[in-house]
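can u do me a favor
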């Protein structure tokens, strides 16, 4: 299918992009286009104008600031996946990125575009929530910072206003161990379920565990029952199995991809695999 008619502009600056979005409530920002363009082809999105922000220099940062990894929203997923800085400071992000679609998609898709799209099965959304990340957004009223816990509000909906652009992602660097696993029908398919895990230890026991499930609800979500099993316990096989069983309190959707029972089984398997990565780190 072909998309409905639209205009296209490529602004030279972030300020111009914000102005263009504020001037037309039906305008949409275009970064990598790996989510927006298919939605347009299926007539699920009908923007009047695409504001191409994919080459704005203000969105290209990839650096460390003290104990924070800063990634510009326009950084390609493949660039972040292969960056030594990401591997050294935020290994969970690298693991999550490898599961996104195929190489060609990651070569065009952007870090910020995936977060702003807010797909409930998005690997980057789960990783951002597990890492307690923050995003910086820019609009006509200036810049503001949004914690990942407040960013994803519903399927494909965020707390950004229509004229705001997600410009930067800030990920804390604190030495926590991490793991990521997902279950899908084929490599590159959307996950039936997946888990991003971040675990901090003290005196050989779990001091703080953050488990975030993807593909099991309207948004990526903390698996609080499974976290409660882990906190204060040694991360051994018995605890991992108990946490996996506790993750079954999630309420996944029932759609043509899988029924809830199948997704819950996939979620339990993903929890076990992600936590095994943590224990072997």
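np, heres the sequence
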């Amino acid at each position: 299918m072909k998309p409905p008619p639209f205009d296209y502009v490529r602004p030279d600056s972030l300020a111009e992009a914000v102005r263009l979005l504020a001037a037309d409530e039906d305008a949409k920002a275009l970064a990598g286009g790996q989510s927006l363009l298919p939605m347009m082809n299926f007539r699920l999105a009908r923007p009047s104008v695409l504001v191409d922000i994919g080459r704005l220099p203000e969105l290209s940062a990839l650096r460390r600031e003290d104990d924070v990894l800063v990634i510009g929203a326009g950084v390609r997923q493949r660039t972040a996946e292969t960056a030594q800085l990401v591997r050294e400071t935020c290994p969970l992000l690298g693991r999550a990125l490898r599961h996104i679609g195929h190489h060609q998609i990651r070569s065009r898709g952007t870090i910020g575009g995936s977060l702003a799209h807010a797909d409930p099965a998005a690997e980057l959304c789960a990783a951002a929530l597990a890492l307690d990340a923050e995003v910086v957004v820019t609009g006509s009223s200036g810049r503001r910072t949004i914690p990942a816990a407040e960013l994803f509000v519903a399927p494909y909906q965020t707390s950004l206003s229509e004229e705001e652009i997600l410009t930067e992602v800030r990920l804390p660097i604190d030495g926590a161990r991490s793991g990521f696993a997902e279950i899908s029908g084929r490599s590159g398919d959307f996950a039936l379920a997946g888990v991003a895990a971040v675990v901090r230890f003290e005196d050989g026991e779990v001091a703080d565990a953050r488990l975030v499930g993807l593909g099991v609800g309207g948004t990526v979500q903390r698996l609080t029952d499974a976290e409660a099993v882990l906190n204060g316990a040694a991360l051994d096989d018995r605890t991992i199995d108990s946490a996996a069983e506790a993750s079954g309190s999630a309420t996944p959707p029932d759609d043509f991809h899988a029924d809830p029972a199948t997704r819950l089984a996939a979620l339990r398997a993903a929890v076990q695999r992600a936590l095994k990565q943590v224990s072997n780190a």
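The radius of gyration is 19 Å. hope that helps!!
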